[in-house]
C-alpha cells in the first residue's frame, strides 16, 4: 500500500520541515537579479555620459550651415585629453562667458592664420572651406597671427556672426571638453 502526501494552498505553503519551498527561494533570488539587470544598463549609460559622450543643444547659429541652431549634438569627451587636429569641431569653455561653445579648429600651435577678403590662409596656404559662405563675408580681413603653444585657433563656419578666436584669441587646449561626433569634414 502506498501513502500519498498532500499539501495545502496550491503548493505555495511551507513543506513539512518548516523551511520555504524551492519555489519561494527562487522568487527571493529573482528580485535582486532583476534589480541588478535594471541597474547595470542605467549605470553604464550614466558612466558613458560622464566619461565618453554627452549630448547638448547648440544655442548659437555660429556653426551654420554645418550645425543648425537648436540641433542636439554629441560631444566625444576622451578627445579632450588627446591631440585636436585641424578641421575638427570642438566643444570648449568659452573664455568670455564660461559657457560651452562649439567651433571648428582652424590651426594648431605654431601655425599662422590669416583671412584675406574672406578666404582663409594657414601658414600662407589657401584653405578650401566649402562649408563657409564666402559671399556673406566679403572684404573680411584678419591677421596674420601665430597660434601659441598649447592652444588652438577656432572659427565658426558662419563667419559673419561667429564670435571666435578672432575676438578672444587662441583657446587653450585645457579648455577643450571634447570633439563633436557631427560636423566633421
Structure report:
The chain is an alpha+beta fold. It is built from 2 helices and 11 strands. The strands form 2 sheets. It has a 7-stranded antiparallel β-sheet with strand order 1-2-11-3-4-9-10. A 4-stranded antiparallel β-sheet has the order 7-6-5-8, with no helix packed on it.
Question: Which descriptors would you attach to this protein?
Answer:
alpha+beta; 2 helices; 18% helix; elongated; 7-stranded antiparallel sheet; 185 residues
Write the layout of secondary structure elements.
Elements: H1 22-51, E1 53-57, E2 72-76, E3 89-93, E4 100-108, E5 112-116, E6 119-122, E7 125-126, E8 142-146, E9 151-155, H2 165-168, E10 171-172, E11 176-180
What's this model, at a glance?
The chain has two helices and eleven strands, in the order H-E-E-E-E-E-E-E-E-E-H-E-E. It has helices at 22-51, 165-168; strands at 53-57, 72-76, 89-93, 100-108, 112-116, 119-122, 125-126, 142-146, 151-155, 171-172, 176-180. The strands form two sheets. The protein has a seven-stranded antiparallel β-sheet.
Amino acid at each position: 500500500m502506498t501513502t500519498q502526501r498532500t499539501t495545502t494552498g496550491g503548493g505555495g505553503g511551507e513543506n513539512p520541515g518548516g523551511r520555504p519551498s524551492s519555489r519561494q527561494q527562487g522568487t527571493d533570488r529573482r528580485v535582486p537579479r532583476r534589480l541588478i539587470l535594471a541597474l547595470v544598463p542605467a549605470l553604464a549609460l550614466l558612466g558613458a555620459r560622464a566619461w565618453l559622450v554627452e549630448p547638448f543643444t547648440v544655442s548659437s547659429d555660429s556653426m551654420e550651415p554645418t550645425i543648425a541652431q537648436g540641433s542636439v549634438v554629441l560631444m566625444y569627451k576622451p578627445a579632450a585629453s588627446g591631440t585636436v587636429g585641424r578641421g575638427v569641431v570642438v566643444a570648449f569653455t568659452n573664455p568670455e562667458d564660461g559657457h560651452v561653445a562649439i567651433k571648428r579648429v582652424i590651426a594648431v600651435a605654431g601655425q599662422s592664420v590669416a583671412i584675406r577678403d574672406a578666404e582663409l590662409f594657414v601658414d600662407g596656404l589657401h584653405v578650401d572651406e566649402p562649408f563657409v559662405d564666402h559671399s556673406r563675408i566679403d572684404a573680411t580681413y584678419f591677421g596674420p597671427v601665430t597660434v601659441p603653444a598649447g592652444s588652438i585657433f577656432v572659427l565658426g563656419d558662419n563667419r559673419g556672426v561667429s564670435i571666435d578666436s578672432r575676438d578672444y584669441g587662441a583657446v587653450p587646449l585645457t579648455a577643450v571638453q571634447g570633439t563633436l561626433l557631427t560636423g566633421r569634414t
